[in-house]
Amino acid sequence: MPELTARAAPPLAHHFVDMRQQTEAARLGMWLFLASEVLLFTGLFTAYSIYRYLYAGVFEEASRKGVELWAGTTNTFVLITSSLTVALAIHFARLGRGKLAAALLGVSLLLGCAFLGIKAIEYANHFHEGQLPGKFYTFAEVQGPGASMFFTLYFIMTGLHGLHVIAGMTVLAVMAVRAWREEFGPEHYAPIEIAGLYWHLVDLIWIFLYPLLYLI
Amino acid sequence: MVHDAPASAGSAVYNTPNYLNAEIGVRSWLLTRDHKRIAIMYLVLTTSAFALGGIFAMLIRIELLTPGPTIMSALTYNRMFTLHGVIMIFLFMVPAIPGIFGNFFLPLMLGAQDVAFPRLNLLSVYLYLTGAVIAVWGMIHGGADTGWTFYAPYSTTTPTQVVPILLGAFVVGFSSIVTGINFIVTTHTMRGPGLTWNRMPLFVWSIYATSVIQVLATPVLGMVLLLVAIEHAFGFGIFDPARGGDPVLFQHLFWFYSHPAVYIMVLPAMAVISEVVCAFARKNMFGYKAVAYSSLGIAFVGFFTWGHHLFTSGQSTFDAGIFGVLSMFVGIFTAIKVFNWTATLYQGAIKFTAPFAYVCGFLFFLVFGGMTGVALATVSLDVHWQDTYFVVAHFHFIMVGGTIMAFLAAIHYWWPKMFGRMYSEGWALVAACLIILGFNATFIPQFLLGNMGMPRRYYSYPAQFWPLNVASTAGASLLAFGFLLVLTYLLISLRHGKVAGPNPWGSRGFEWNTPSPPSALNFPVPPVFTHGPHDYTTGAETPPEAPGEPEHA
Amino acid sequence: MNELMRRMLFLPEQASQYARDVDRLHYFVITTTMIAATGVGLTVLWFFIRFRRRSEAQTTPRVEPKTIHEVLFIGVPLSFFLLWFAIGFPQYVRLQTPPRDAMDVYVQAKKWMWKFSYAGGPNGIDVLHVPAGRPVRLLLTSRDVIHSFFVPALRLKQDVLPGRYTQTWFNADKPGRYELFCAEYCGMGHSAMLGEVVVMRPEEFDAWLADARRSGSPAVDAAMTEEEHADPRQSLTQQGERLAAEYGCFKCHTVDGTRHIGPTWLDLYRKTEKLSDGKTVLADEGYLTESMMDPRAKIVAGYQPVMPTYQGKIPAPEVAAIVEFIKSLRTDAVKVEPSKGPVYAPIRK
């Protein structure tokens, strides 16, 4: 990811004809990468649907008794808000107000940290209660085949998403520094824009994870 | 280690400035962003992988020379065929043609100075190398014995080193995704002025279709390999029936990638064939649009046929019917291409050269291999053939008879462009004959073994399968000898070959409008495209010249 | 003709009508494939001779396809492919639907042996005895990894999965001994996981079965029986009854038709049960197995979801025994659905 964005540091790379071509390439590249990321999660979503179909009752019970609805809901709001501040940051970067954009990205980063913090509290609870994947599962309240499977999928899905959050925050941090240095303007804002795209994807994946794991 | 070999050879031989001598030294190769140098790095790496996989193949064939144990134990044999499969597929078949010829010629054919993301391109080489190193590390520390399909729950319970092999394949998968993204973006945004979609060389169309599959299918494989690795390492029970897991789910997810992956391996081969047929028939492609769009058709329909690997796994009869019919349609796109390639020869001006010899082999093997593939999708026949040597033979007909023939055609066709030297045509024809003969002798007996009912991955076998196995091993030796011959005369030609000149074949492909080897900056002036590729209706604009001997340093 | 083609293609003997039918399709498919490949090869050769390059500066006319060409290129192969499919798919459907009157044999695979259990009879290791001319249904499961039951002479293959049952059937009509292979890679002993299918004349088979029931199966592997503490002299049904008592099934289920905490087992097999969610389900082997492994998946209307799961607690062959026991509990006088009679008659005690 930093690859894509850092590449645009000298405004026009030697192998492009003009800025328009370069921006177009960067944007298309990012969209393709996002498509690839979506397919990465699709494997997990497929596994989830199959096992949910097989063990409908147990999954329902596990999502009712095993996970904290307040944590999931709060995290959803946290992430949506962070997406909003990223969108605003892009807007102000385009207007050339780099310092304000950097500040907004800073808010997003804080929200990202909050998300990870809440997730960490949840994980600690799961460890405490023995709601762990596979052979480590010892949670007494929900038993039966498929109960440990719910937590296996829960940990893999949220874990992978968490890694994406961390990657996204790294990218945003780089962008915040560059915005602070006033590198962006009406002509040149592609890097921060595609960084934003990535953050929105991270957000979007959570919006799918939240109902699957916490609500239904 | 080997990276600097072409550089030093190049600096000694060529005195015209080109991409090989633009910068000298190991560092200039390791940190290069030139798509042509990256292609050469891929050439060295994937060929080494091919050699390693080939050694495993020969060991397997030697082991099968007698019905009982021959040279190794059952466990070693199981590791051998696993490593043969993993290396050949993930380290050679998938990256070879896109990595080498896609990288080298896609920008040249589009009139671009480089691919869209040169740094990512270099990253893809290093991802490939990292994956390969992890996999080789795993091999040295025990290797896996699961077969390249990693079927759960065997793969999650075997005590061998599955995890490094899986992680290696996972990392190589990312290299593949990065290359795919690069090619799609390059094709979309970097076509030169006048190069509309319908003027693009057919090579680009096929590579484009390949890239689409790479970007969309590889992540699913990555995920499923990761799940198997996690389960093997920590016992999470994702595919373990004792914990409520479903082993058939693994097969679905695995084949969702791995069936399209067959097209990742064969579409680039088709890309090459389209170019070579036109160049040596000196003829426009009969049915350009049909060939171009059928590539996209294969890429699309290829995503919906994975269930034909599960006819005997206990999936529902209804599913089997749907996947069976859809598989028939994938066969059609290949048929369209074959007929159009053949029809291209009509009224052409055909010159029989080594690349063209491989094309002839390719056409026969692809028709036979492809139709046996459709036969396998004919549901009831698959019940008999599934997991027997028939499947092995069919697969190798497509992979060796298709992709490797095309790979050889490509390397012979483009060798003069990449290195500026001609190889010995006589030896090349001898090698082509050896390879085609050896190939038939290796794999036709395997079809018959499959009919007899010999299951694949058998370390020992009942005596009735003996004669055909001996025939197959004999053929494999011939095949191996052919490959060594190719390697020898190509390496010799690097130093002693005749200087090729910019266009030794008189081809109208856009990539031949550059000097051989091309300069570091592909085109001093960006080219303007006024006609489609493969246009041979007028006389040559620049007749192929015979340049003088180079000065030796 | 059949014999000639069979030998040319190195196909093994044909021990059933299904095998002969599949082979006919095989001949058709391979012949078309050979003709197509040779046709393309000869065309290339002809074009090469006719249109070889005569001078280095030669130009060629631009030839474009007409619509009819592309229609032919698509239509001809597609019609052949679909024809293959139209013949092959019904054969597959036939293979997937065992006839009602088939004799059941439970097949259990483990690394690296086969175990065959007859409903009313003994067990066999690596050798499957079947009567000629009578349909035999196999219910297959694995104890460890995936195996695959492959008899080339019957053109028959079915994967054997851990944790669930798959089924297939055949009607061998030619007495003889046929090879049985494991076709799905399963580790070190994969290529040694061989077995034999012995097709006997029906009267010989009946005699063999009766004899085996009396004396116990001669070839019983010690490792296998020890682990499963199954007595080969006991029939599967008897084992099932004993096991059901051991696992405490009778605390909730009766065998005499009275209602208790759970539904009675009498006449349960092949009964259409009404579920609490309004759907209905046919109580076949699959449902019975599922109800032991995942009792809450389908709750019969009027009962509480109180049954614990036996997933991982009962080994697969014991599940088979219990299912077989349930199948044996029938009041022949009062048939629930006379049209859907018991699956087989000959072997019942």
Essential attributes:
heterotrimer; B: 553 residues; mainly alpha; Cytochrome C Oxidase, Chain A; 17 helices; 66% helix; disordered N terminus; disordered C terminus; C: 349 residues; alpha+beta; Immunoglobulin-like; Cytochrome Bc1 Complex, Chain D, domain 2; five-stranded mixed beta sheet; 8 helices
Structural notes for this entry:
- The complex is a heterotrimer of chains A (216), B (553) and C (349).
- Chain A has helices spanning 2-6, 19-54, 56-65, 69-94, 98-129, 147-180, 190-215.
- Chain A is an all-alpha fold and 216 residues long.
- The two termini of chain A are 33 Å apart.
- With 553 residues, chain B is an all-alpha fold.
- Chain B has a single domain, classed as Cytochrome c oxidase-like, subunit I domain (Cytochrome C Oxidase, Chain A), CATH 1.20.210.
- Chain B has 17 helices and two strands.
- Chain B has helices at residues 4-13, 26-30, 35-63, 74-93, 96-110, 118-140, 154-157, 162-189, 202-234, 247-281, 288-301, 317-344, 354-377, 379-385, 389-419, 425-452, 466-496, and strands at residues 421-422, 498-499.
- Chain B is globular.
- Residues 1-13 and 542-553 of chain B have low confidence and may be disordered.
- Chain C is α+β, with helices and mostly antiparallel strands and 349 residues long.
- Chain C has three domains: 2-51 and 58-96; 103-228, Immunoglobulin-like; 236-328, Cytochrome c-like domain (Cytochrome Bc1 Complex, Chain D, domain 2, Orthogonal Bundle).
- Chain C has helices spanning 2-8, 17-50, 67-96, 202-215, 222-228, 236-246, 285-293, 316-328, and strands at 103-110, 113-118, 123-125, 127-131, 136-142, 147-151, 156-160, 166-170, 176-182, 195-200, 272-274, 280-282.
- Chain C has a five-stranded mixed beta sheet, with helices on one face. A five-stranded mixed beta sheet of chain C has the order 4-10-9-6-7, with helices on one face. Chain C has a two-stranded antiparallel ribbon with strand order 11-12.
- In chain C, α2 runs antiparallel to α3 and α6 crosses α8.
- The radius of gyration of chain C is 27 Å and the shape is elongated.
- The two termini of chain C are 46 Å apart.
